[in-house]
Amino acid sequence: MSQINNAKTLSSTAIATGANPSGLRIDLDVIQAWIQPRSRILDLGCGDGTLLENLRDHKQVTGYGLEIDPEQITTCIGKGLNVIDQNLDRGLSNFADHSFDSVIMTQALQTMHAPHKVLEEMLRVGKECIVTFPNFGHWKARWHLCVSGRMPVSDLLPYQWYDTPNIHFCTFRDFEFLCRELNIDILQRQVVAERPFSRLLKDLRPNLFGETAIYHLRKQR
Amino acid sequence: MPETFAKDSVGLVTPQTLHFDEPLMLACGRELESYELVIETYGTLNPEKSNGVLICHALSGNHHAAGYHRVEDRKPGWWDSYIGPGKPIDTNRFFVVSLNNLGGCHGSTGPRSINPQTGQPWGKDFPKLRVRDWVHSQARLADRLGIEQWAAVIGGSLGGMQAMRWALEYPDRLRHCVVIASAMNLTTQNIAFNETARQAIMSDPKFHDGDYTLADTYPKDGLAVARMIGHITYLSGDGMGQKFGREIRSGSFQRGQDEPVEFQVESYLRYQGDVFSESFDANTYILMTRALDYFDLAREYDDDPIQAFSHASCRFLVVSFTTDWRFAPERSREIVEALIGADKAVSYAEVESEYGHDAFLLPIDRYYRLFNEYMQGVSTHQ
Predict the structure, then answer these.
(1) pTM of the complete model
(2) Does residue A81 belong to the interface with chain B, where contact is any CB pair within 8 Å?
(3) Which of A142, A187, B119, B364 has the fewest CB atoms below 10 angstroms from its CB?
(4) Is the torsion defined by CA of B300, B305, B310, B315 positive or negative?
């Protein structure tokens, strides 16, 4: 039974990661800038290992990627990365407190069964963490819901509500409320928008025009 | 010579016997004055001697891991699916060394060999061996072959235990350690199965307390039962069900019929037991299962696996199989967690398979590809 569940989650994470390859590239530049050279990192849902590979080659980081998609794991192994076959929904109980400098999760928080618990686990295991996720508060999503009265389906969020890996959507504001509730400090935030129109306005109204946000977090002491 | 072998087969292979005169101190406190190891090699050692790969065999394995001894052989070596030109353990790139471990019964010094002090077969007096004894003898073998450092030491099951022990005992002598369907020690249930198998052998009247050779007999039936027990545990319940179901080989359940019924699985197990007991030695089986039982990677490191692995300096690949209940994925995950705790380079894959513990021997697509990718990396950094 658990295997069936595994298989389900596994394919969904893969799709979620692969859905926005160009977005991932921008995330990557930002994340790379935030990571200290030679630090020890854990990349949750590492996909094909693009981020880890970049950080290894440009920042000399060590660490591991966690992934459950068999194809992606094989790809990571081919790149000489450390990849561990592990379902994130089972938690990170096998990792010790503060055993990593940074724990990173790109574009996968919204696919977790319990994002708030994952977030807390990330901040238990890592001294800091970096999270990126798509903004459900983006004007296109709001417009879609408002005008058609149906759940948004667009090139940014290309899934039907009944068949989507993205089971826990939030807006930037939602996420920041959660951080406050969990006593998490937001060290840095970078809002990414790729469309020219959005790019122009994202700094003015990030929650309306930002497509993806990258958060740099730490637990309050 | 007719061209009868597949392109990706190493083809005909010939075992070699190497004699070692330097005494080997064993973990049990006894010493082997001299010994022989039977090996097979595939591929060519490069001039830098940096492309050596050591294959460690499991409980019933031997040196014949790939290729054929004779053109007419029906079956190739036990890991032929993974060793050969273009295969994951690519003999175009690697110099592959496979041996029969000490205590074995396929040519290396073991219970069937003559004890030079008595002129009689060792039999039950052959020293009890531990995994580390095999590893030390394998290190001597590496010396003999001029291999200072293996590109990789690879093993499944009991072979994986040897590979891990290599990483701790000789950290500078291997760059990669591949541990497949293994564990840092056996579970209670595993020891229980091994003891049941040993009892099957020892309670055979022809066992003669291990001195069956002197009595000119052989506990074939006991060994066959031992193998049957082992074999059940190497398969998954579902896998067995799919393969044999409740199929009947002979007899009938019809009312009014008194003919005995034989299920397919019965005949299969008996066949496996028969074949095995003809080619294996009962004392070796006891010795190997005891080595399995005694193995405990972290015992001498305060029972702390992280401390144990902190001594390693190679990279690791750990693989498990979903339906393997003899060396379950959880046991592999323990290895991985200890390696992560010790900040070692490790990758881990849990491969979906219905074949139980036996999966590590079988061609399985995902397993094959990830193993292949890993070994490509091993060969490009040699």
Answers:
(1) 0.92
(2) yes
(3) B119
(4) positive
